[in-house]
Amino acid sequence: MQAIKQADIVIGIPSFNNERTIAHVVQAAYAGLAKYFPQLTAVVVNSDGGSTDATREAVISARVEDSHLLLLDTPMGGAHRLSFPYHGVPGKGSAFRLVFQLAAALGAKACAVVDSDLRSITPEWIDLLVRPILFAGYDFVAPYYQRHKYDGTITNSIVYPLTRSLYGLSVRQPIGGEFGISAHLVSRYLERDVWDTDVARYGIDIWMTTVAIAEGFRVCQSFLGAKLHDAKDPSSDLSAMLHQVVGSVFALMQEYEPVWWDREGARPVEVFGFRFDVGLDPISVDVQRMVKAFQRGCEELPEIWALVLSTDTLSTVRALGRGCGHGQPLHMDNDLWTRVVYEFACAYRRQSISRGHLLRSLTPLYLARVASFVIETQQMGPAEVETQIEDLCLAFEKQKPYLRAQWNGKAGGAPPVRPEREVVTS
User: What phi and psi values does residue 276 have, to the nearest 5 degrees?
Assistant: First the structure.
């Protein structure tokens, strides 16, 4: 590192035991830099969280022969390749912090981060994440993927509709994992006092996206094609990820309350790249397992839910549970699910119960919503499924006055008073 004085571009790849996939990611990054930015200096840095396999060795040994690439220019020099263990709070955020510190120290004009378990990354991804930063004046490039309809259920059912309704921008993959960041925004991230908190451990993706949107940085998206990675059946144990991500979203709602309070609707965000249909890996879903988890929740959690949900919402949820027990197909409609999410967000703010207990008690309700979605969309193609998700987003936007009333403890009631305080910026 001491021999590298300056770089125009830094590509960061956080990792933990990704020996099987990371060489491909490094090769794609290296090839993308050589093909699309041959006149610029670049560094590919692996920020590793203490892998016990050969992840770091795979990074250093990965090779791309220039003769195998179709280059429009002769590269001035190959990208530097570095692999460092990071220190501090374990988690992806600490890995990102090391990448951002390196980018700032090298005076990089653009930085991009990509996940280390990707099987679908191509050299074009590097161009699509970096070019809008370097040549179009954007500060933040979010990914826009084509994903299997049952991949990314936390994004589709909670994070995307909630973030969109709050901040008024349609960023389709707010926790996608691949981002492009300007030098200005890198500096802003490093200024923030979050790196020793749970944000660094759990919620870094949604934090980065929310800061960029809420603080007025220029945001766009790039279409990257398919995201093929080690996706899981949404009925499997995603509870830890659900608690971490949703808890981060709820905490950010408190910080940026003056930003989202008066915003209505959502405007589209420009998408770079050529849109095309791609083949996707199938994902099998155990609907019955999710339904049973919801039924157990209805039996075991009504006292906790009563501290979180309004009387009407709780009554409707329990009726759904009874219906499942009598063989009725589970259907949790958009309006009910929107109220559930909004009421949980407000209870998180009030700390009606321990936030850990509150977030854990959300899991059976989330599984009920996903099971309902799977049942309704089994025979639908990608375009029809996307229409269903759009309808959910519109329900979140339509019920935002309900959120504001609940937020101030005025369920069903009078117009809330707009908070008169500044956005927290440090």
Answer: -155, 160
pLDDT tens digits, one per residue of 293-345: 999 999 999 999 999 999 999 999 999 999 987 778 899 999 999 999 999 99
Distance between CA 408 and CA 346 in Å, rounded? 8
Closest CA to 6 of 77, 59, 63: 77
User: Which helix (H) or strand (E) element contains residue 221?
Assistant: strand 219-226
Residue 69 pLDDT greater than 70, yes or no: no
Find tokens 């009725």 and name the residue: 328
What DSSP line would sit under 142-182, residue for residue? EEEEE--TTS-HHIIIIIHHHHHHHHSB--S-TT-S-EEEE
Could you give the CA distance from residue 353 to residue 138 in angstroms, rounded to a whole number?
A: 41
Domains, in order of start, for the chain: 9-272 (3.90.550.10), 287-407 (no CATH)
Phi, psi of 78 (to 5 degrees): -65, 155
Non-local (6+) Cβ contacts of 21 within 8 A are: 116, 117, 118, 119
Instruction: Tell me how crowded residue 101 is: count the other CB atoms within 10 A of its CB.
Output: 15
How many Å apart are CA 314 and CA 340, to the nearest integer?
9
Q: How far apart are CA 99 and CA 173, in angstroms?
A: 21
Closest CA to 217 of 265, 269, 257, 291: 269
Q: Which of 13, 121, 124 is nearest to 69 (CA)?
A: 124
Residue written as tokens 């988690």? 91
Contact yes or no for 38/138 (Cβ under 8 A): no
Nearest CA-CA partner of 227 in 172, 162, 169, 165: 172
Residue pLDDT, tens place only, 223-245: 998 887 655 555 555 678 899 89
Question: For 78, which DSSP code?
Answer: P
Question: How, if at all, do strands 42-48 and 219-226 pair?
Answer: unpaired
For residue 280 the two structure tokens come to 């996707």
| Three-state secondary-structure class, residue 193 | coil
Q: Angle 110-255-414 (CA atoms, 0-180°, nearest 5)?
A: 135
Q: Are 254 and 167 in contact (CB under 8 A)?
A: no
Contact in structure between 99 and 1 (CB atoms under 8 Å): no
Closest CA to 80 of 26, 139, 130: 26
